C-alpha cells in the first residue's frame, strides 16, 4: 500500500514525509483493517512530524483521523463491526497512523458512519470535533452556567465548540483574526472579538457586565496567555485547556475566585487502560456524525485535497492559509 512515512528519527519534519510503498498490515487480535477513504488534517499532525514520539517504530506512518471501509477484522474484534461497514475513528498517535491506503484501528475507537454522511464529513469531525465534544460534554461543569469564551473559534476545535455550546444554550464569545470573522459568524458565535485589534480581556468584561465568563476553552499553545484567560473568568469559573504548555499561574489567584483549570487530552484514552474511556472515543465520534446526519452540526470543511497533495495541505494548515477543515480524499 502507499503511505506517507517518516523514515527515521533523523528525518523528522513534515517536509520530510515521503509517499512510499509499504506492506499492508494484517488485522489481528482486536484490530480492524480499514481501507482509507478520507483523512482529516490536524495541527497535531505537523507537530508530531516535527517532534516525533519516543514510542514510534520506524518507518512511521503519520495521521490520527480516518474514515473508510472495514476490509478485515481480527479474531477478537467486537462482533458489532463487520467487513463492509463504513466507519471513522481517532487513532493512537503512538502507533502507525492514518496517512495510508489502509490503516489498522482498535475496535473500541470506531464509530459507524450514517449513510447520509460522507467520508469527508466524518473524517473532518474527529480530532478537533471530539476534543470540543469532550470539553463541553465531559469536562465542563454546566450547572448554572450561561457564558463561554472560546479562544481561536475558527480552528478545528473552536468551530465545533461554538456549535455545540449553542446547542447547550450558552452565550458564545470567541476570538479570531479579522479575516476569519465571517467564518465564526456562520458557526453561530454571539460575540466576536478581533484579538489583533482589540483588548480581549476588556471586551469580555464589558460583554459580561464586569463579571467574566463562566467557562473558557483554550486551544492556543502560549504559556503567557493563561493568566489573561483566568482574568476573563467569573467567580467559580472554569478554563478547559487543550494545550501542553506549562501553566504559569498563581494558586492564590485560583483560590481567591474559586477557579478551576481542567486539562483535556483526547488521545490519552488510548494510552491508559481504562476500558470505559477507550470506548468513549467511539461514543463521541458516533454522537458527532449523527449530529451531522441530523443537520445539527456543520463540519465546516474549508478544502478537500487529493492524497498526492497531503504534504502541501499540512503546510497550508501550519501557515493558517485555509479557513475551515482540510480533508484529504483518497478515492
From TrEMBL:
A Pfam family recorded for this sequence: ADH_zinc_N
Superkingdom, natural source: Bacteria
MF terms in GO: NADPH binding; oxidoreductase activity, acting on NAD(P)H
InterPro entries xrefs: ADH-like_C, ADH-like_N, ER, GroES-like_sf, NAD(P)-bd_dom_sf
Keyword Nucleotidyltransferase: no
UniProt KW Isomerase keyword: no
Record keywords: NADP, Oxidoreductase
SUPFAM superfamilies linked: GroES-like, NAD(P)-binding Rossmann-fold domains
Protein name: Zinc-binding dehydrogenase
Amino acid at each position: 500500500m502507499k503511505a506517507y512515512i517518516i523514515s527515521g528519527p533523523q528525518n523528522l519534519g513534515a517536509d520530510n514525509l515521503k509517499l512510499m510503498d509499504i506492506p499492508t498490515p494484517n488485522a489481528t487480535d482486536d484490530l480492524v483493517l480499514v481501507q482509507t477513504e478520507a483523512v482529516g488534517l490536524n495541527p497535531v499532525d505537523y507537530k508530531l512530524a516535527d517532534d516525533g514520539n519516543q514510542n514510534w517504530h520506524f518507518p512511521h506512518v503519520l495521521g490520527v483521523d480516518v474514515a473508510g471501509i472495514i476490509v478485515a477484522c481480527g479474531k477478537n474484534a467486537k462482533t458489532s463491526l463487520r467487513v463492509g461497514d463504513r466507519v471513522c475513528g481517532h487513532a493512537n498517535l503512538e502507533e502507525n497512523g492514518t496517512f495510508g491506503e489502509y490503516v489498522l484501528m482498535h475496535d473500541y475507537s470506531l464509530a459507524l458512519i450514517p449513510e447520509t454522511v460522507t467520508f469527508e464529513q466524518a473524517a473532518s469531525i474527529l480530532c478537533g470535533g471530539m476534543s470540543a465534544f469532550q470539553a463541553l460534554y465531559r469536562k465542563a461543569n454546566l450547572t448554572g452556567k450561561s457564558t463561554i469564551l472560546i479562544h481561536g473559534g475558527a480552528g478545528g476545535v473552536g468551530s465545533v465548540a461554538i456549535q455545540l455550546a449553542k446547542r447547550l444554550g450558552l452565550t458564545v464569545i470567541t476570538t479570531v483574526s479579522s479575516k476569519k470573522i465571517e467564518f465564526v459568524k456562520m458557526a453561530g458565535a454571539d460575540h466576536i472579538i478581533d484579538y489583533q485589534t482589540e483588548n480581549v480581556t476588556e471586551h469580555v468584561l464589558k460583554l459580561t457586565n464586569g463579571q467574566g465568563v463562566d467557562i473558557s476553552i483554550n486551544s492556543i499553545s502560549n504559556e503567557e496567555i493563561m493568566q489573561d484567560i483566568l482574568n476573563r473568568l467569573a467567580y467559580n469559573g472554569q478554563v478547559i485547556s487543550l494545550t501542553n504548555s506549562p501553566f504559569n499561574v498563581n494558586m492564590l489567584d485560583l483560590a481567591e475566585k474559586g477557579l478551576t483549570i481542567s486539562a483535556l487530552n483526547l488521545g490519552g484514552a488510548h494510552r491508559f487502560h481504562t476500558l470505559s474511556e477507550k470506548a468513549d472515543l467511539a461514543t463521541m465520534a458516533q454522537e458527532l456524525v449523527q449530529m451531522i446526519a441530523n443537520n445539527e452540526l456543520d463540519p465546516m470543511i474549508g478544502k478537500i485535497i487529493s492524497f498526492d497533495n497531503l504534504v502541501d495541505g499540512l503546510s497550508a494548515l501550519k501557515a493558517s492559509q485555509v479557513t475551515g477543515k482540510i480533508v484529504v480524499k483518497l478515492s
